[in-house]
Amino acid sequence: MDTRHAREMWGQMGSTDEGAELLEHIASIRERSLAACAxxxxxxxxxxxxxxxxxxxxxxLQVRRAIGSLPGEQRKQVGAAVAAAQxxxxxxxxxxxxxxxxxxxxLARPLDVTLPGIPVPTGGLHPTVQLMxxxxxxxxALNFQIYEGPEISSELFEFDNLNFPPxxxxxxxxxxxxxxxxxxxxxxxxxxxxxxxxxASVRFxxxxxxxxxxxxxxxxxxxxxxDARHERAFFQYEVLIVDRHVPLTLGKFLVSTIxxxxxxKHVPTRMRTGFFPFVEPGFEIxxxxxxxxxxxxxxxxxxxxxxxxxxxxxxxxVLHAGGLDPDEWTGFYVNVGLDRLxxxxxxxxxxxxMHSADLRFxxxxx
Length: 366
Ligand SMILES: [Zn+2]
Prior knowledge:
- The protein has 366 residues and is α+β, with helices and mostly antiparallel strands.
- The chain has helices at 3-13, 17-39, 43-54, 59-67, 72-103, 127-140, 155-158, 199-207, 248-263, 316-321, 338-346, 359-362, and strands at residues 145-146, 152-154, 191-193, 212-215, 218-221, 233-243, 269-273, 279-288, 305-314, 330-337.
- The chain is rod-shaped.
C-alpha cells in the first residue's frame, strides 16, 4: 500500500486528520522498510532493518501505541493497516533472509585451488626395516623363502643344536638373557631370548624337505652394556642354502647379493678362514672399505677392508640336529648385522640412534 493509495482509501472513509496522518505514516514506514530489506547486503544489515521496524522501539510498534487514542471505527481501520504493513514487511524480511543465506559463500574467504595443500604426516619405515625389506625383495627374486623364528627360544635350539659346547661362554648368564621361570631346567625347556638367528635354521630344517634356500631376518638379544657400537637388542639377517652340492663360490654370491643390494653397486669382498661353532669350514667375510675405496683410512684402520659378516658350511652336527644326513647334504650360511649395514648405508656413527625412537633422527628417512 503506497502513500497515495492510503490517502485515497482514508478519504473515502471520511476520517479525521489524525487517522489520515497515521495511515500515511504507516504507508511510509512500510515503503522504507521494504526498501531497506531489498537493499540489505548482509544478515547484519537485514537485522538492523528488522529492529528498525519491528523492534521494541520499532516504528510500527509506536504506531500501534498511538492507535489507542483513536475513535472506534478509525482504530479498526488503522489497526488493520498496521497489521497488513507488518505482514508485508515480515514476508519481505523472510524472503530477503533466504536470498542472503542462499548466496552466502560456504567458505569464510574465496577458495584458491592453486594454493599448495596441507601436507599429511605419513611417517616412514625405520632404516633397518627398509633395509630388511630391500634384502627380502632381492632374495625373493632368487627364489628364497622368507622364514620367521620365535624371539623366545631355548638352550636346545640356540646352543645344543648349533654345536656350541656346554662350556661355551655364550651360555653364561652374562651373555644371554635366560628366562628365570626355566632357570633350573636344560635343553628344550630352558628358555632364553635368542642371542642369534641361527637357531631358527634348525627349526626350518626340521619342518622342510631339502634342497631349500631361505632367509630369516629378525631381532636378537645380547646381555651387554650399550655404547656407540653395542646394543642389547639389534637386527640380524641370515641366509641359508642347503643342497647336495654347494660350492663356496655360491657363498660368495650370497654375500655379493647382500652388499650390492645395500650399496646399490658391486662391492669387492674377500673370505678368510674363521671359527664359528656352527660352521665347518667357517669364514670371516670382509668387504672393501667404502670410505677410502681400499686405499686405507681411519675407518678401516689403514687396511682397506672391513670385517662385515661370518659365513660357512653348516657343521655336520648342525645338519644332524636338523634331521639331515651330512654325507648327502651340504650348504652355506651367511649372517650379517642389519643395523650395522644400515649405518654403513646411511653414514650413521652411533648404533644407539637406531633404537632411540627419536623422531628428529627417524624423520630423515621418511
Ligand atoms: Zn678405509
